[in-house]
Design a protein that fits this description.
The chain has a four-stranded antiparallel sheet with strand order 1-2-4-3. The chain is about 40% helix and about 10% strand. It has a single domain (about 20-225), classed as 3-Layer(aba) Sandwich (NADH Oxidase), CATH 3.40.109.10. The longest helix has 22 residues, at about 60-80. It is globular, with a radius of gyration of 19 Å. The chain has about 250 residues and is of the alpha+beta class. The protein has helices spanning about 10-15, 30-40, 60-80, 85-95, 115-130, 135-140, 165-185, 200-205, 240; strands at about 55-60, 155-160, 190, 210-220. One of its GO terms (molecular function) is oxidoreductase activity. Its cofactor is FMN. Belongs to the nitroreductase family. Pfam families: Nitroreductase (PF00881). Keywords: Flavoprotein, FMN, Oxidoreductase.
């Protein structure tokens, strides 16, 4: 037995201490630290070592242009979706603000998964002081996704379309390594499905092959002292995850 590795208890505590950061300081990330985190991400396993993903790194003016475009589209989309059918039809006609790449995040969750999403949403909005019926305040809070919560770096994760769910699985493994390495370096991260609906705005800034599809974003930077960064989402139990053998 190999006894030279890290203490298992330390590993469990370290994994449990990671949080999704939703308020960042503007402090730049030193390039050598960002490079190391990206290098660490590539130690994750991969399907036949194909590494079917690309990472577009947005900082500075590039990040700001993408953010401004996202915020502009969200402003249009959120206002129209709160109004009547005529305005929704106008949105479909103009198309500005409509998803250009992925519509999954605007669809309702299935019954099995919905309660988990509703719980974390309720707890977060309560922390933000947003009341249940205050749609405008909810939309304003959601808009913070599109400023990347103030992070100095936004990563856009792309996966090769030929491997379908397996590419997403590999990207998830890579992202988990990246997030844990960032955590070890004193940085915070937040994986963002919310940014994956306007792929064209990102491609305007980056030369990305059409063989790759946008999976999600990932904000990275130094966490602020905001209470939101101490929020811990509820974890399901192992019994909810494990599938037992059928009984005779």
């Amino acid at each position: 037995m190999n006894t030279s590795g890290p203490d298992p208890k330390w590993i469990s505590e370290f994994l449990a201490s990671r949080r999704s950061t939703r308020d960042f300081l503007p402090t730049p990330i030193p390039q050598e630290i960002l490079d190391q985190i990206l290098t660490d991400s590539l130690t994750a396993p991969s399907w036949s070592n194909t590494r079917p993903f690309k990472v577009a790194i947005a900082t500075g003016e590039v990040k700001d242009r993408i953010s401004n475009e996202f915020l502009s589209r969200w402003s249009v989309l959120s206002q129209i979706m709160r109004k009547g059918i005529k305005n929704k039809l106008r949105l479909i006609y103009s198309r500005y603000g409509l998803p250009t790449s992925n519509r999954t995040i605007v669809k309702p969750y299935v019954a099995e998964l919905r309660p988990r999403a509703q719980r974390v949403g309720k707890e977060l909005y309560e922390l933000f002081g947003v009341k249940r019926g205050d749609r405008a305040a909810r939309d304003a809070q959601w808009a913070k996704n599109y400023s990347f919560f103030g992070a100095p770096v936004e990563l856009f994760i792309y996966i090769h379309k030929s491997l379908h769910v397996y590419a997403a699985s590999d990207a998830g493994l890579m992202m988990q390594n990246l997030m844990l390495s960032a955590h070890a370096h004193g940085l915070g991260t937040c994986a963002q499905g919310a940014v994956n609906i306007w792929d064209d705005a990102i491609r305007k800034e980056f030369d990305i092959s059409k063989d790759y599809r946008l999976l999600c974003g990932l904000a990275i930077g130094y966490p602020s002292n905001s209470p939101v960064n101490q929020f811990q989402a509820n974890r399901i139990s192992t019994d909810e995850m494990i599938v037992r053998p059928k009984k005779d």
